[in-house]
Write a structure and sequence with these properties.
The protein has 393 residues and is of the alpha/beta class. The protein folds into 2 domains: 9-209 and 329-389, Rossmann fold, CATH 3.40.50; 249-313, no CATH class. The protein has helices spanning 18-28, 60-63, 79-90, 103-107, 111-117, 142-148, 169-192, 202-209, 211-218, 257-264, 267-270, 281-291, 297-304, 317-320, 324-329, 370-376, 381-389; strands at 9-13, 32-37, 54-55, 58-59, 69-73, 94-97, 122-127, 196-201, 241-244, 249-252, 311-313, 332-337, 341-346. The strands form 4 sheets. The protein has a 6-stranded parallel beta sheet, sandwiched between helices. A hairpin with a 2-residue loop joins strand 3 and strand 4 (58-59). Helix 1 (18-28) crosses helix 7 (169-192). It is elongated.
Length: 393
Amino acid sequence: MELFLSGVRVLSLTHFLQGPSAVQLLADLGADVIKVEPPGRGAWERRWAGGRSFRDGESVFFLLANRNQRSLTLDLRTEAGKDVLRRLVRTADVLVENYRPGVLDRLGFGYDAVARLNPRVIYCSCSGYGPSGPYRDYPGQDLLVQAVSGLASLSGGADDPPVAVGTPVVDQHAAVLAAFGIVAALRGREQTGRGCRIDASLLAAALDLQIEPLNYHLNGGHLLPRSRFGLASTFHEAPYGIYRTRDGWIALSLSPISRLAELTGSPALAAFRDEESFVRREQIAAVLAAVLPDRTTQEWLDLFQPAGVWCMPVNDYSRLMEDPQVQHTLSLLHFDHPHAGPVRVLGHPLRYDGEAPPLRRRPPLLGEHTEEILREAGYTGEEIRRLRDERVV
């Protein structure tokens, strides 16, 4: 497939998930992404992985968000290291960073300094709460932002504590928004000839994820308390929720109560009118919670789906990987890593003319491309040896 971002050079001063995932989306589409890492220890995500998921010492957390990139080690605490980065900035199209606000300014690579070196650069800062404000210096982390943004308050039963989403949705949505902003800014630069600064924060991403309920709240919408009987939101009518069956769980979306009453044969459900599905949603959900354990999930699916009821099984990861539509849709990339061996990771989530972007480079070893990148930047072999001897790279 055509790599739409071929010829675009991205300097990635990123770690954790938000920044690396954002630049990986660009790298998948052909951008030349140079990951700048401290010598010796490398980026933070090389040394940590959720669930202690390491393959022969290689962090799966690193492997999942750093493909199609090159690794350059560079000590930005040294003047020689700063000189290298300044030279790279002059030829870059994009710089992406997710240090805490102010760190790169102190190192001499804030937006103003970088824009003086290269007025055409797109400078994207990924942060927890944005570049200013009372929370500017607080740690920006997915769970913390789910909490402060109100997102965690939306999930869970009436008697449960607030429930965080069980995957870093804020990090990943913020990454996608950052990549979207960068592509938009590159298009804008074609028209103006100028670069710009983009601020992508976890807090803004978390608020954007709540586009529906938050806007209802802002405009006097009727939001209800969390349900005791499986209803999945505070603003949908019944049966919108997840219910236990004889052998598992089933999700029911927006469907007429009269149809469900007919299919389940429940006299209690038949006592409700369709127009009561919001005002009496808790009572309706209670009846469904009592009726649905009578059959297995598959038995209900076989009954409901042909009748047009919106429903799906609730898969855990074992069932997910056996699901026929997931098998049809899922994009997995396979590669051999010199340390980790065979690795499988989720691929790019979009298709372009029916094709997914290819894997061009496995996630790099620390500093694997340092000499290659320095030579491209004009450094001689002797200069590179000196930088290595001085532990700049």
